[in-house]
UniProtKB/TrEMBL annotation, chain A:
Keyword set includes RNA-binding: no
Keyword Cell membrane: yes
Lineage of source species: Bacteria, Bacillati, Bacillota, Bacilli, Bacillales
Protein name: ABC transporter permease
Domain ABC transmembrane type-1: 57-259
Species of origin: Candidatus Pristimantibacillus lignocellulolyticus
TrEMBL record, chain B:
Keyword Membrane attributed: yes
One Gene Ontology term from the biological process aspect of the record: transmembrane transport
Topology of this chain in the membrane: Multi-pass membrane protein
Location of the ABC transmembrane type-1 domain: 62-250
Segments traversing the membrane: 12-32, 58-87, 99-124, 130-153, 174-196, 202-222, 234-253
A Pfam family reported for this protein in Swiss-Prot or TrEMBL: BPD_transp_1
Assigned keywords, A-Z: Cell membrane, Membrane, Transmembrane, Transmembrane helix, Transport
Organism listed in the record: Candidatus Pristimantibacillus lignocellulolyticus
GO cellular component: plasma membrane
UniProt similarity note: Belongs to the binding-protein-dependent transport system permease family. CysTW subfamily.
Localization: Cell membrane
PROSITE patterns: ABC_TM1 (PS50928)
CDD domains on file: TM_PBP2 (cd06261)
Name of the protein in its database record: ABC transporter permease
Length: 271, 267
């Protein structure tokens, strides 16, 4: 196509890239060098390396890691068993369906379920364990997060399993591999890309969750996301918020490079 | 032995389904509770639905949400389709760069998108409210549309375009008569995805709404922080049913497209 005519209707797209992709990143980095009074400074970066922020970063990492591991542990068998069912695509649709429902509504439901007089406590009472504080604990935070992220983990793993050539499994069996051996040496390595994609789709959002920490964890858990939101919308210290965002971006890039997703098979599922 | 395994896998799957759907069912059931809380079902009532219907503020917010979703999906689909065409016809090196830039917003956490857009709008001087929310929704929907359209373009045989050119078609004709019809299903899928992303978004909107303008997700968040109110349950139930309708609709459109494509391939 001739360059000149092409340019005209491509203007909006390139404008979008400049304004909403490149400019925001530059702005975040730029703002991270300013303190609350608007003076240029490296203060924010110094502050980030103090124990308070380091501890927060580590705990944020720890929670995200736990959430990813639990999601994987539940999602892998689910995806595997799904590929064995008769009406696979229908079952998959049913698994994905809850992820289409607004995250806040699901979080809201758990306020009722885990509440002091909620269903879970009623059950605990009848069993004889008695009433427990469930809402606003680490447990409820991790449970609800895993609940929300499971579909994002299932989908890429399911796709990877589906893509796998089944004759490889028969071959492994013919050569005398046990079912455990087949899984460890054949199935799992072949679906590793799906697992990686799933882990990224869970780990990075888990680092940056913020509404769940407020609704479900009752401000007891502070993730990097919560800290950013706090600095931007509550204390109005944009500089510090931007600094944390810079580190979150760095972490994100490192995680992606570590996972080695060259041919980035981006999983387009709900965030 | 085989039977046992089958049973176990079935139980496992059913357990996962129960856990996935339990909160949603729970919300729906309590939307009919005549008591005021989500604990202890006292009796059946439709009062909370009535409450939702009479809450003008809430209805305006629902309307806002839909207006934003439809507008942003439509605009981002138009921009995104041209973007996808641009990427498709690039040389491979700049193509890679452009694709990476395209995907930045898909992989970035919502908080960062929200925060950086907040800075952007404040600097440029866009008033926080309808315009800033609409612009952000368009911004994060564009890459989604591109991702949905690109595979369709890759499926297309480039000699189709050469043929059209040889027959004297202008650039615009090539796009309107050859490319667009071919990637139609991708465009629909992109529009639908953009629509649902917009309807669903909370984090980005939360950053860029000023006072006085709100979408459903933001409103639910602020209400939920104040505690349980069963009108939220009623509203959720309605949204849930609507979502199911959307998804089923999308599923059928997809199926039909696939069938049509199969037919086309056979002919």
């Amino acid at each position: 196509m001739e360059a000149r005519t092409r340019n005209i209707y491509l203007v909006p797209y390139f404008l979008w890239i400049v304004l909403f992709v490149i400019a925001p990143i530059i702005l975040i980095v730029y703002y991270s060098f300013f303190n609350v009074e608007g003076a240029f400074t490296f203060e924010n970066y110094q502050k980030f390396f103090t124990p308070v922020y380091m501890k927060m970063t580590l705990s944020s990492f720890w929670y995200a890691l736990l959430i990813t591991i639990f999601s994987l542990a539940i999602a892998y068998p689910t995806a595997y068993l799904l590929t064995k069912t008769k009406h696979k695509s229908l079952w998959l649709l049913l698994i994905i369906l809850p992820s289409w429902i607004n995250l806040l509504l699901k979080a809201y439901a758990f306020i009722g379920i885990f509440g002091t007089y909620g269903v879970v406590n009623a059950v605990l009472e009848t069993i004889g364990i008695g009433n427990r504080q469930i809402l606003f604990t680490d447990f409820s935070f991790i449970f609800v997060s895993v609940y929300i992220f499971i579909p994002f983990m299932i989908l890429p793993i399911y796709n990877a399993l589906e893509k796998m050539n089944p004759s490889l499994i028969y071959a492994a069996r013919d050569l005398g591999a046990s079912s455990m051996g087949t899984f460890r040496k054949v199935i799992f390595p072949l679906t590793l890309d799906g697992v990686k994609a799933g882990c990224i789709a869970v780990f990075i959002p888990a680092l940056s969750l913020f509404m769940l920490t407020r609704l479900i964890a009752g401000n007891r858990v502070i993730t990097l996301g919560t800290a950013i939101e706090q600095h931007f919308l509550v204390t109005q210290d944009w500089g510090m918020g931007a600094t944390i965002a810079v580190f979150l971006i760095i972490i994100m890039v490192v995680v992606m490079l570590l996972m080695g997703l060259r041919k980035r098979g981006i999983v387009l599922v709900k965030r | 032995m085989l039977n046992d395994k089958l049973k176990f896998s079935r139980i496992y799957l059913i357990a996962v389904f129960i856990v996935l759907y339990a909160p949603i069912v729970y919300l729906m059931v309590y939307s009919f509770n005549s008591g005021g809380t989500m604990t202890g079902f006292e009796g059946f009532t439709l009062d909370h639905y009535k409450e939702v219907m009479q809450d003008t503020r809430l209805l305006i917010i629902v309307l806002n949400t839909f207006v934003i979703a439809l507008l942003s999906a439509a605009i981002s689909t138009i921009i995104g389709v041209f973007g996808a065409i641009a990427i498709h016809f690039m040389r491979s090196k700049s193509k890679q760069t452009l694709l990476t830039l395209n995907n930045v917003l898909i992989v970035s956490p919502d908080v960062i998108i929200g925060a950086s857009f907040l800075i952007l709008f404040t600097i440029v001087g866009v008033k926080l409210g309808f315009v800033s929310v609409l612009l952000s929704h368009i911004a994060f929907s564009i890459p989604i549309v591109v991702i949905m359209v690109l595979p369709k373009l890759q499926e297309m045989n480039d000699s189709l375009i050469d043929a059209a050119r040889d027959l004297g078609a202008s650039t615009w004709h090539v796009i309107a008569r050859v490319i667009m019809p071919f990637i139609k299903s991708g465009i629909f899928a992109g529009f639908f995805m953009a629509l649902t992303y917009s309807l669903d978004d909370f984090a980005v909107t939360f950053f860029v709404t000023g006072n006085g303008y709100s979408t459903l997700a933001v409103e639910i968040y602020s209400r939920a922080r104040q505690g349980v109110s069963l009108s939220i349950n009623a509203l959720s139930t309605l949204i849930f049913l609507f979502t199911i309708l959307l998804v089923i609709g999308y599923y059928f459109i997809n199926q039909r497209n696939n069938r049509l494509e199969d037919k086309g391939a056979k002919q």
